[in-house]
Amino acid sequence: MSKTSDPPVTAANIMATPYTPNAMFRVNPQTDTESLLANACESLASASVMLCDFAGMLEGPHRQTLLGIAQVVMLGELAVNQALEHVAGLPSP
Prior knowledge:
There is one protein chain. The relative contact order is 0.10. By secondary structure, this protein is mostly helical. The chain contains three helices and no strands.
């Protein structure tokens, strides 16, 4: 029985594969930008809370790693909030 190996995973192979999004999770293309940003902001805020809660259950390097990830999520939330303010025409603080 001959054993064939899969081609190596390279950037070229990944980029050559067409991406087809699953229709189940497709965002409605008619949704306005402000609503999308508000939803993204709420999702990031929820993720931040979950990460911090979970980090509270850990100790040592795993806790530090999770808190680092939470900080990256919070920075993303700040950026989305700023974009939302621009789209909504609100003055920056």
